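Request from the bench team (R.T.):
"We need a structural guess for the complex before ordering more coenzyme A. Sequence and SMILES attached. Just send the tokens back."

Command: build protein-coenzyme A structure.
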Amino acid sequence: MTDRGDVPMQWLRNTAPYIHAHRGRTVVVMLPGEIAAEGLLPPLIQDIALLSSLGLRIVLVHGCRPQIDALLADAGLESEFHRGIRISDSETMVHVRRAVGALRLEIEALLSMGLPNSPMQGAALNISSGNFVTARPIGVVEGVDHHLTGRVRRIDTSGIRRQLDAGTIVLLSNVGFSPTGETFNLAVEDVAVRCAVELAADKLILFGQDSGIHDGEGQLIRQCAVDAAATLAPVDARQQVLLAAATEACRQGVARSHIISYRNDCALLQELYTHDGVGTLVARTEFEQSRRATIEDVGGILELITPLEHDGVLLKRSRELLETEIGRFRLLERDGRIIACAALYPFPENGCGELACIVTHPDYRGDGRARRLLDALEDEARQLGLAEVFVLTTQTAHWFLEQGFVERDRDALPDARASLYNLQRNSKVFFKRLG
Ligand SMILES: CC(C)(COP(=O)(O)OP(=O)(O)OC[C@H]1O[C@@H](n2cnc3c(N)ncnc32)[C@H](O)[C@@H]1OP(=O)(O)O)[C@@H](O)C(=O)NCCC(=O)NCCS
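Reply to R.T.: structure attached below.
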């Protein structure tokens, strides 16, 4: 045994499932102008380069509110706002264009520099920014003309996809163009949400100043489903805007929106590559999905059950066997990772079915997950017209007793199953009648 390298090795093992789960996924990342204004852009862009090299398809959407404010202040101009939205007249727009152009170039330069002195040194990254966003004017609202302040009208998704397919990072700004050739100032949140929705992105990542969304008591909300998000009352207006954007994206089909802090150097990688992340996650569906397994899940299930096979808790299953029996498995998936599974093998001629391979990942035990899978498989058994389910177990007898199973003699097993009984394992047999 050597200590050297154990920590990174373990870290790599823990991270590998997430690397696998995120590869090929489309992620829209919103970068508010404050990141650059606070000098925090370079390390963040390095992490984005790393994500790109790990196979994520990335669209960056940057804003530049503080940069616009600074240029306006230098010019001795003051912006007018209506309901929090800046009115962009043609004079203001000169400064918006300057701010957007400068920041866009800064991000492109950072992504182009080959990331010296970083793990990504020498990695070639291609960036594409262009006229992917078509805009329209907001118009006159409550008597106030918003001039060149606009909303997203259309996103050129096929153009963006072509770039992503080629491994290019797409960079969008908070401006859009009209078919009549005008440039409109847009809210960065509007561009990010619409882009994520229209691309059917897997994730929208929203950077904010705080670690996530905090409730009235200042507690960080780690995760919530989209319906629950509507009932939250974030502590301030800034968080409200982020939560509204996250929720809107999920309502319109984005699977997950993450709100994380740009002031935490590790937030992006921790959010994507660790179990529980660090910010607030808003999910379109129930947080953990229970579903039937498919052939794509074989690897994930093997990862879950192999350690227990080595310990003799479970009977050994080869990959080939698992592939042929995969349709009998149900699983719980969290963030693309399988964290629990169970299988039902029906014996219709005997009116019963065997429950097998019930496993919850050690990090997720004790929260009723196995119970939830058991309930689902019992329902499935009922639908198949089976009157009973049974299990063979060596070390988990009491768990099954607590779930309403009763011990029976081996003779109670269907003949076809009894003939396969492994005497050496000396498993106990438990049955449960389905009500
Ligand atoms: C048994 C197992 C599937 C339960 O998963 P889970 O998602 O934690 O299940 P639940 O949350 O519904 O139940 C947890 C309860 O079962 C108890 N429990 C777990 N393993 C047990 C065992 N071998 N014997 C008795 N009770 C057990 C836990 O202590 C916990 O009780 P508590 O909350 O009162 O402390 C999980 O512990 C596991 O994967 N074990 C290894 C594989 C295994 O033995 N599978 C059965 C093969 S037939």
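Two things stood out. The chain is about 35% helix and 25% strand. Residues 308, 313-314, 358-360, 365-371, 391, 393, 395-396, 398-399 surround coenzyme A (CB under 6 Å).
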